[in-house]
From TrEMBL:
<protein>
    <recommendedName>
        <fullName>PPM-type phosphatase domain-containing protein</fullName>
    </recommendedName>
</protein>
């Protein structure tokens, strides 16, 4: 999985799917 952060949006590439998540969503997932 490749994760890049731009302007508070984390773009996650995983299995050829691109998902944009916000910092808040990322924090919630990592809890």
């Amino acid at each position: 999985m490749l994760v890049t952060a731009t302007d508070g949006i984390w773009r996650v590439w995983n299995n050829n799917d691109t998902i944009d998540i916000t910092m808040n969503e990322l924090d919630a997932r990592s809890q």
